[in-house]
Each structure stands twice: as structure tokens, then as C-alpha cells.
């Protein structure tokens, strides 16, 4: 089955530093990937849509200069949290759609737990 | 995007069949209905997907009435390892919105 790999699975960083999270589709190509944020006991919130070869589309309220997304290839999208602050501590999850058909389901990575101290 | 409504939580004893219903009154003609399972500190995992009537796979069944305004995920003979949050998703593949999900607690 389709596998999406996310790295790292957890990271601790100091306030003011930047952190990069990778999302890879291991056995399929994904022209579109999605990034979510999930706070404890809450649902997933879509942050942005990552498009291969073009700029990402951000959801309302998500700062594009703070959450930099790069989708340089059909199998890799990265999310960089710049100048991280404690309030950015959260669980970040990516997903990718295997096919272009409307009914093709999303496949999710296992998430990255970010803790900013 | 079709908004979904699910019960916030459910409890069930081991070995019982569990049915989780999701309401999606404004589902579009081309929308599919997809269910995901999420364990703590993990990404959601695809369970089942359907468009109408009934779909069954090795882990669950999905029942969709003719008007498609709701759907029911059926988990046969649940075990403790089925304790998780279950999400019903409906909508355009490019922008899927997660609702609150249903937290299923399986009791020994």
C-alpha cells in the first residue's frame, strides 16, 4: 500500500531557532501534499497545500513566512518552522494523495511532535 | 465542503459490534465518504471508503443510505486495540476538512 514517511518523528528545539520537517511518499508520486497541525485532544487543522513545482497555498490565519513549505520533487515536501516559539509546539502531520482521481484517499505520515523550549 | 457531524465519544465492550454514524447533509454529488482511524501520536490511517450502498473490507463495513446524507462505519467484534479516534471525511480531495471525530473507548 501507499506509504508516507515523515521525519523526524519528534524534535525539541530552542525558541528562536528553525526546524525542518520532511514528508516523503515512498512508493508513489504526489503532486500535492498537505500539512496539518494538531493540538492535544483536538482534530487536525489543515495548514497548507503543497504543490510540486509551485508555491504552497496557505489556509487563512497561517503565516506563510513562518511556515515555509517547499515541494521540490514529486516525492518530497518539507515544512520549515522558522523562528519557533513555544506556542508552535504541536503535532505536525503531512498527507499525500496517491492518485488524481477524486476518490483516491489520502495517505498520512506518522506525524512529527515539535516541542519548543 | 460538506461539513460532517459525529458523536464526540462512544464506549463499547470488547467483542461487540460498534456502529459510528456520521451526518453530512450537504454532501455533493461527486463526493466520496472516507473513514480514518487515528491512534494517539500517530497520523490517521485509512479504513474504508464508499460512494453509496454498502462497502466491506477486512476491517470494517460502511453503510450509506440512498440519500447519502449520512453514513455508518461498522466495526465487527471490537478489541482493545480498536480504541482510537475515528474521523468521517467528505469532500473534494484537494482540501479535506477534519471534523471532531469520534473517540471510541473499548472496555475489557
Secondary structure blueprint with pairings:
The complex is a heterodimer of chains A (117) and B (108).
Chain A: E1 4-7, E2 10-13, E3 19-25, E4 32-38, E5 45-51, E6 57-58, E7 67-73, E8 76-81, E9 90-97, E10 106-108, E11 112-116
Parallel strand pairs in A: 2-11
Antiparallel strand pairs in A: 1-3, 3-8, 4-5, 4-9, 5-6, 7-8, 9-10, 9-11
Chain B: E1 9-13, E2 18-23, E3 33-38, E4 45-50, E5 53-56, E6 61-64, E7 70-75, E8 84-90, E9 102-107
Parallel strand pairs in B: 1-9
Antiparallel strand pairs in B: 2-7, 3-4, 3-8, 5-6, 6-7, 8-9
- CA radius of gyration of chain B is 13 Å
Large-scale geometry of chain A: globular
Tell me the structural class of chain A.
mainly beta
Major β-sheet profile of chain B: 5 strands, mixed
Biggest β-sheet: strands ordered side by side in the sheet of chain B: 1-9-8-3-4
Mean pLDDT of chain B: 92
Pattern of helices and strands of chain B: EEEEEEEEE
Mean pLDDT score of chain A, rounded?
A: 92
Q: Briefly note the structural class of the backbone of chain B.
A: mainly beta
DSSP strand content of chain A: over 45%
Show unreliable segments of chain B.
none
Largest sheet of chain A, if any?
7 strands, mixed
Tell the overall outline of chain B. globular
In whole angstroms, how far apart are the ends of chain B? 38 Å
What is the element string of chain A, with H for helices and E for strands?
EEEEEEEEEEE
List keywords for this structure.
heterodimer, A: 117 residues, mainly beta, 7-stranded mixed sheet, 4-stranded antiparallel sheet, 11 strands, 51% strand, globular, B: 108 residues, 5-stranded mixed sheet
Please give a structural write-up.
- The complex is a heterodimer of chains A (117) and B (108).
- In chain A, 0% of the residues lie in helices and 51% in strands.
- Chain A has no helices and 11 strands.
- Chain A has strands at residues 4-7, 10-13, 19-25, 32-38, 45-51, 57-58, 67-73, 76-81, 90-97, 106-108, 112-116.
- In chain A, strands 2, 4, 5, 6, 9, 10 and 11 form a 7-stranded mixed sheet that branches. A 4-stranded antiparallel sheet of chain A has the order 1-3-8-7, with no helix packed on it.
- Chain B has 108 residues and is mainly β.
- A 5-stranded mixed sheet of chain B has the order 1-9-8-3-4, with no helix packed on it. In chain B, strands 2-7-6-5 form a 4-stranded antiparallel sheet, with no helix packed on it.
- In chain B, β3 and β4 form a beta hairpin.
- The mean pLDDT of chain B is 92.
- Classes of the chains: A mainly beta (117), B mainly beta (108).
- The A-B interface holds A 4, 6, 32, 34, 36, 43-46, 49, 91, 93-95, 97, 102-111, 113 and B 30-32, 34, 36, 41-46, 49, 51, 87, 92-101.
Amino acid at each position: 500500500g501507499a506509504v508516507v514517511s515523515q521525519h523526524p518523528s519528534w524534535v525539541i528545539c530552542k525558541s528562536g531557532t528553525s526546524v525542518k520537517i520532511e514528508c516523503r511518499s515512498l512508493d508513489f508520486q504526489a503532486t500535492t501534499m498537505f500539512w496539518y497541525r494538531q493540538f492535544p485532544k483536538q482534530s487536525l487543522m489543515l495548514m497548507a497545500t503543497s504543490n510540486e513545482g509551485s508555491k504552497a497555498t496557505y489556509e487563512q490565519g497561517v503565516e506563510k513566512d513562518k511556515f515555509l513549505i517547499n515541494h521540490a520533487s514529486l516525492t518530497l515536501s518539507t515544512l520549515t518552522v522558522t523562528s519557533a516559539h513555544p506556542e508552535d509546539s504541536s503535532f505536525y502531520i503531512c498527507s499525500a494523495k496517491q492518485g488524481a482521481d477524486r476518490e483516491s484517499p489520502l495517505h498520512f505520515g506518522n506525524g512529527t511532535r515539535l516541542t519548543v523550549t | 465542503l460538506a461539513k460532517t457531524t459525529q458523536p464526540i465519544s462512544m464506549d463499547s465492550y470488547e467483542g461487540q459490534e460498534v456502529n459510528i454514524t456520521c451526518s453530512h447533509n450537504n454532501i455533493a454529488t461527486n463526493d466520496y465518504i472516507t473513514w480514518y482511524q487515528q491512534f494517539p501520536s500517530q497520523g490517521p490511517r485509512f479504513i474504508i471508503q464508499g460512494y453509496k450502498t454498502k462497502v466491506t473490507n477486512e476491517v470494517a463495513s460502511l453503510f450509506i443510505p440512498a440519500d447519502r446524507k449520512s453514513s455508518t462505519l461498522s466495526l465487527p467484534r471490537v478489541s482493545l486495540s480498536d480504541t482510537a479516534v475515528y474521523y468521517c471525511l467528505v469532500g473534494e480531495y484537494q482540501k479535506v476538512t477534519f471534523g471532531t471525530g469520534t473517540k471510541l473507548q473499548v472496555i475489557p
